[in-house]
Amino acid sequence: MEKTRVVEKTKQAAPKNLDPNKQVFPEGQPQILKSYFVPGLPHILLCPEKKPEWTKVNQAFGKIREELKELKPDILLIYSTYWPSVVSHQIQARPLIKWTLVDEEWHDLGSVPYEIKIDSDFSHAYKDSAEKRGLEVRTVDYDGFPVDTGSVVLQKLVNPDNQFLSSIVSSHVYADRAETVVLGKAARDALVQTQKTAAVFVVSSFSNRYLPNWPEEYKEEKFSSLKDEEWNQKFIELLSEGRLEDVSQLSRSFHSQARVSKKVVNFKPFWWLSSVMGSTNQFKGEILEYQPVHGTGAAVIGLTPSAQTQGDLEFDEEDIEVYQGNRNILAEDPS
């Protein structure tokens, strides 16, 4: 059996001054003010009053909305697992997207008219950076292309007046870790190139199994299983300590234990987020809210760059700079 290769990560320097209005970033590093992990089910937007748990999650989005007013980022950089792409990675590039959302699973909750302003220049810079790193990427720029539910929920709750431009990237169904890590590094490249300050968002859930046979008279929310809840709590604990890269390293285990495992290749949002943020544990973690929404693990989490770290750890999964295809670890040794 092949021995597990242990690679020590190179830690990126974190800004020492954490005041977002005075933050000084090292030359050649992206200007990322803060990152967030948020859920995206439409219940949070369309009917939060129906369940106290949904109300609390909705209110946590309100806290982010107020934080963004203080941070004043140039761009909201969004990776949404609610936007699955099959052919390559895709990036929204239409300057103004205007349409009406009806969620394919929860259409009974109602329609959501939306307008989203996209930073087209940044989206094209992101595409170019990703292609230079070996990825297949395309931009999306035509009228009527549907924005996913998670991105619409996020925009309506934290950026309802389009105060900030956005860039939204899809979650490629067949991409595994190498592609996803490189996609995150390409985002860093584009941020450095464009010199834009950013707030980074992942729209996803922890455990994603719905409660079966949901009756209308059902009054109390709960997680779909105790096992899912235990895994959710472990990730909550790690992220509260700012250990983003540690969470990234555990993504494969989490996917197999607490998620519907046949829809996509592994649980990839933390691979992307950790890569964008520099693949470190140098963050101040804040759990703004954590509740079940239709049985799923809905967490609202903030991660602020910090000079402190949870230790210079060694990780099992290697760092990748350029995507050169997935490794065929079961193939015979060509030598």
**Hey, roughly how much beta strand do the residues contain?**
15-25%
Total number of helical segments? 9
Q: How do the strands line up in the largest sheet?
A: 8-3-9-2-11-10
End-to-end distance, in Å? Answer: 17 Å
What letter string, H or E per element, gives the SSE order? EEHHEEEEHEHEHEHHHHEEE
What structural class do the secondary elements suggest?
alpha/beta
Q: What is the averaged pLDDT score?
A: 87
Largest sheet: 6 strands, mixed
Q: Please, how many domains? A: 1
Portion in helices: 25-40%
User: What is the CATH top level name?
Assistant: Alpha Beta
What's the CATH topology name? Protocatechuate 4,5-dioxygenase, Chain B
Query: Architecture in CATH?
Result: 3-Layer(aba) Sandwich
Any low-confidence stretches, pLDDT <50, length ≥5? 1-21
CATH superfamily: LigB-like
Give the overall form: globular
How would you describe what is shown here?
With 335 residues, the protein is α/β, with parallel strands linked by helices. The protein has a single domain (29-312), classed as 3-Layer(aba) Sandwich (Protocatechuate 4,5-dioxygenase, Chain B), CATH 3.40.830.10. 30% of the residues lie in helices and 24% in strands. The protein contains nine helices and twelve strands. It has a six-stranded mixed beta sheet with strand order 8-3-9-2-11-10, sandwiched between helices. A hairpin with a 2-residue loop joins strand 10 and strand 11 (296-305). Helix 3 (120-132) crosses helix 5 (177-194) and helix 5 (177-194) runs parallel beside helix 9 (269-276). It is globular and about 50 Å long. It starts with 6 loop residues before the first strand and ends in a 20-residue tail after the last strand.
